[in-house]
Amino acid sequence: MGYGPVPATDKALAKAGLSIDDIGLFEVNEAFAVQVLAFLEHYGIADDDPRVNPMGGAIAVGHPLATSGIRLMAYLARSFERHPEVQFGVTTMCIGLGMGGTIIWENPHCTASAGEYHGSKG
What GO molecular function annotations does the UniProt record carry, in alphabetical order (predicted)? Predict the structure, then answer.
């Protein structure tokens, strides 16, 4: 349990025709600290990258039953407002029995031109 966000994110990126470099913000649920570390290691993202959980993760703010997904979406929405240069963001979390879920979101506040990605290399 805890590694599920990695294959879920791989599948979501493939379906969207994007790479991890196209993602400018990440909200990774911290059900366990090692879950986030495994995600970051897999994608070669530094553990202090400011794009990851910029408003604090579940270890800092809590992990209430049945509301963590909503918190991830709300935090990403707020971060999109603060970062109009970012075109795409990800919410991802582990689910019981080793599964994971990932959604790629497009920033409605993005100031990028059509087809111009603003992720980690934007």
Answer: acetyl-CoA C-acyltransferase activity
